[in-house]
Amino acid sequence: MGLIYREFPNRGVTYVYSNDAHYDPEKKQSRSKRKLIGKLDPETGEIIPTGKQGRKKRAGAEEGMTPEGMKERLERQGKEIELLKNRVSILEKDNEKLRADRDKARAALKEQRRELAEVVEGAASVTRRMREILSLR
Description:
Elements: E1 2-8, E2 13-24, E3 29-40, E4 47-49, H1 52-55, H2 67-136
Antiparallel strand pairs: 1-2, 2-3, 3-4
């Protein structure tokens, strides 16, 4: 297993890969598998891990994560939670009002349908009566 250094001049970054060569008997050729290890630090020449290994941080390792910084962060998050709770309660009230308005609109529509059915029935009876009168002549 060896290391391969691949430079990307347009980004100014050099990536380091581990290279595992093996022979493929079916194709009768050698093949290699590469796996990204990390970036090469141009100043120190050290390999900086990328991927999950490079992103992990220990608790409190962030900038400003002193006990005071953590307390401030918790206070900010508490305030944000309170704001979100207020927004939720406002939206719940708006939702209740909209549901009540919807129920009123449904009731009004039902009443209008009933009245329309009466008008249609009345018009049908008038039409029948007119046909009877016209057929008698």
